[in-house]
Amino acid sequence: MLNTIARTDSPVLRALVLACAFATAACGTLEEDGPPVGRVVGSGETGLVAGEDGLARRIAMEVLAREGTAADAAVAYFFMAAVSYPSRVSLASGGLCLSYEEAENQTRLLDFRIRPSVTKGAGLPVPGAVRGMSALQAVHGNLAWHDLLVPAERAARFGVRVSPALARDLEDASGVLLGDAPARRLFASPEGGTPGVGDTLVQFELSDMLSGVRTRGATDFYRGGTARRIMEAAHEAGRVITPEELGDYAVAWSDPATFALERGLLASDLIVHVPGGTIDAGTSALTALALLDEAGSADRDAERHHLLAEVDLRLAVARGSGAKANLMESYNAARATDPAALPGSPVPLVESPHATGVVTADRMGNAVACVFTMNGLFGDGSVLPGTGIVIPASSGTDESLLPVIVVNDVLRSVVLAGTATGGSASPIIMAQALTDVVDGDLSLDDAVRRVRVHHPGLPHLVFAEGEAAEALAQRGHAVEAVAEIGRVLAIHCPDGLRNAPKSCVAVTDPRVPD
Description:
The structure is a single chain. By secondary structure, the protein is α+β, with helices and mostly antiparallel strands. The protein has a domain at 257-352 and 405-508: CATH 3.60.20. The protein is built from 17 helices and 21 strands. It has a seven-stranded antiparallel beta sheet. The chain has a six-stranded antiparallel beta sheet with strand order 3-11-12-4-5-8, covered by helices on one side. It has a three-stranded antiparallel beta sheet with strand order 1-7-6. A hairpin with a 4-residue loop joins strand 11 and strand 12. The longest helix has 21 residues, at 301-321. Residues 6-44 have low confidence and may be disordered.
């Protein structure tokens, strides 16, 4: 068996640790430092990272310490997370990145979403993340590509400890994973279940794939020897991906959509940058900010839960009609809106909530916010034979991917960079966090911890965390209590990243098991 699960007290693990001791320091990834949650960056610090996977965060911080850029750190995070957080990140992922370059005072959107196969049924979705990370690093990176992949390659070969976040995902997806032979070989524990926190996951096949990308570049993944292995593995699994589909994959750079918040820090314009075009989450987030501004603030939590649910419902209406004017005319602060009073029919956005992201900032004032997805938890629940690569699900349009960068237009400096995940909930939870920080004067940590609500449009029902359920029910909402609505990762620099790095904090959502 080429991939193994080892208990932390097993001879296998002790041998791996011993071998690691004679390798480079990158093998130190068997251990993990605590997450930089709410950590203030002081004098001499090299940058910030917010991300769900602790091991990948640590590697990204090491890249920043070696004078890597925010882009370098994001790339290193991605490849390590493909090893240590394979429930949500894979070499077959797709996604979006927003990157801010301080020297040009410019924010750009990088689109590397998964492309559907031209072959119906058995077609393998075309991955974009490896090409996307290569493009991001080529334009904004400083370190050698090779150096960014070494830690991930060695971690896959020598093993990584299963984090609480990965352990929960493994448990949630165990039924699907254990039904696929390659996934079972990779993820099953010796007892036949899935590994728990602290067990060690060794991925020799994935290490070999990373080696090809490290030594021969991203092109090898799409046109070279690694691409041939992917196509052969797909054939073995009864799937199809053609040389043209892989070889012709190209990323797209574009200008993001923007929204001006004419208040806040230093009474300056804050320019919110989000994905534009056909990416619904960006448009919906800007609409939510406008509607919250139109409705005014709601100070008490009960009123705010109600307002957020009502705005979220109207985002689904705007999605269907495209109309954004007069959406709040039917809003009543004391009761839920009758669907018949809405200016159109809500259109739900059916997307997987199981995406993840990373947010990085460097000492030069640059920032990157990326969201990655496999269109489902562990993608479609299968692994490409002989590669260790988790296969993304075919369904999904990636319209809910939401990276955000907020720039103080006067100071020419980033004040906030973040990501929101959670499927169709991502626009409202990002709008909530932004308004809480900018208008509500909450700390970023308090804003991210705040109770969330989400109205998908259809069914006419509000999902609510914690005490929000009762407050909403009192206003006539149909409510379903849930444990978690999305996750936010963010970096906040109240006085500007470039101008006052000591003001910066990085926050990882406390909903991530730790």
